[in-house]
Prior knowledge:
By secondary structure, the protein is mainly alpha-helical. It has one domain (9-137). It has helices at 9-31, 38-57, 67-89, 99-137. The chain is elongated. The two termini are 23 Å apart. The mean pLDDT is 87.
Amino acid sequence: MKLINKGNxxxxxxxxxxxxxLGKLLLEKLTGFTDRYYSENIFTILAISILGTxxxxxxxxxxxxxxxxxxxxxxxxxxxxxxxxxxxxxKFTDFAPTAYKDMIISVTIPFVxxxxxxxxxxxxxxxxxxxxxxxxxx
Length: 138
């Protein structure tokens, strides 16, 4: 069962981007933080939303493998790509000394939240399909 496909990919990216941006803005408002790199961070949120959606979409192709190793692998691939992007970005501009830690935290929270929603819907759909199969077999 493919939950993320060509037809809904950009819709899912937009929802992830919007929710993550709203969370960022709400957190900044509550803490009184002013982001001087606002535009760069918005584009980073968009890139991470696309990356997270792409990585979660691979679940369809990895469904024959156990869930936990697939989830851990998806997370490690996501973090690996983010760390590689930081390393490449450091060649062109200055980064904070805590850039790796900050980005890992910034990616982990939305990734885990998105994965929870994705896999909850996925397993719900599986249970629904199993119930339909049982009813057809009666």
